[in-house]
Amino acid sequence: MLLFSDAAAVFSEIEKRSGRLEMTDVLSTLFKRTDGKEIDKLVYFIQGIVAPPYEGIDLGVGERFAIAAIASASGYPAGEVERQYKKSGDLGDTAEALLSKRKQTALSTTEMGVTYVYDAMIKIAKAGGQGSQDVKIKHLTELLNNAAPLEARYIVRFVLGRLRLGVGDPTILDAISVAHAGDKSLREPLERAYNVCADMGYVAKKFYADPESVRDFHVEPFRPLIPALAEREDSPGSIIKRLGRCGVEMKYDGFRLQCHKKGKEVELYSRKLERMSPMFPDVVAEIRKLKCDEIIFEGEALAFDKKKGRYFPFQQTMHRRRKHGIDEASKEFPLNLFVFDILYLDGADMTGDSYRARRAAVQRLFRGNVLAPSQMKIVRTSRELKKLFDDAVSSGLEGIMAKDLDSPYTAGKRKFAWIKLKKSYGKSVDTIDGVVVGYYLGRGARAEFEFGGVLVAVYNPGRGRLETVAKVATGFTEDEMVELREGLEKIKTKAPPLNLDCKIEVDYWVEPKFVVEVAFDEITESPNHTCAMHDGKGLALRFPRMTKMRPDKAENEITTSGEVARMFEIQRARS
Ligand code: AMP
Three-state DSSP class for 172? Predict the structure, then answer.
């Protein structure tokens, strides 16, 4: 049995490291001591979740309840806990400090294994209905009564959804491989298994029972996959240079849905893998009518504006659903789902098939009005590609997606299987998707909203670090400012995110959760930003402005530093 105190000691070690290699080493020693019955729980804990997002299990513990539990376990009044919290800015640290000066010790304490703590978390999550908050506080207090101060630090951070160990999924996969084989040789099959089922706890458990089993993972209905993502190029010519003859699809600015069906049962997942079926009953009903028994496919959902004969963009599609109610909106603004990929059909895993073969199946299976294939044409030259791009933009779409005809379905961003070409916004060259890591208070006219802008970072997957690329102070609508201020206020932290490299001060740090799209005029070198840092200089966006919020995007799907560096090179070559 792995003691939770041992896990907590390792978490504290990890917090002191920043390199991925070091983290992998420390984590693999912990995995070596973990048995097959508890590995899934430990993995979820490190990911900061109780279960994959589509399970919909939410701990639902707010600060107020955590404060009540800390007060009752430490013997200090709630007011004192709050006072200390204001000073430290981290309730986990406050719990640790107060429990080390406990006013009362529990009569008897239980030695807590990782499984014990995890089971208690599940009880906390599942407590619902009337009086549920009291039950949650009771379970949390029991955990804290049994906890040493260091354990309390991580228990409290975890229940608040603020574990922030800064360990990315690739590092966890590396560490499992190192723990078992002594090197990273098993990383690839582990990663493939994770890609096809998106549940790292489940993969780890299967692996511990039989390491060979991960070589034989297949997609199945109701186990969503990690979605494939698009790389970018800046011109039709560079796409053709990379892919040669390729499939070019219209790029719809809608809501991506991964659709699963087995018999009459249907489930839809967002790109963050949250369950979306209640939001799209009209799409669910259409999928139920499909003539196959089991299927997994992907498409982009968009509402049609009958008056203008045009599609509403993503934000309006979602806004209409919220404002008019789902049923009404379904009638008034009917949805279309443009199907662009198929991953599984009646027992056959199609993720290894070429795009050409998958696309043929999409065209064969989807012929309806609501579920229709995305528009696609095979092109050979950059002229043909440019023509399709111009057509897309003039009909109000975002741009095009070029797809490698021979490529299998590749989860995440990889090997340029899909390449996007988007229209530029006004004068700007391009846009990036970044994550907000901090924010500024308003000054002057803005003071009224108490919001002055955000510090935005991109991701460096090689280093497992977030790197800053822009301070964004314009482009927000008043609604967005209010939404951002309120959203960010809830996730503000005293210290910068653990996996952030940053040379700039902010008024408040936040957990890296809000993804925003930022347009800019050009990329410049800057000693202040850390994106793709080289010889003391990073890359920064010039005249950055917010174009939209991207609540559908996960923090690990944002633009990478490598992409920014490539855009910089292209820009330099042009001038
Ligand atoms: P972006 O969000 O700009 O990185 O572009 C990738 C997204 O475009 C995908 O996640 C899909 O939601 C969306 N998309 C729209 N049309 C297509 C298409 N034809 N093929 C693939 N993805 C598409």
Answer: helix
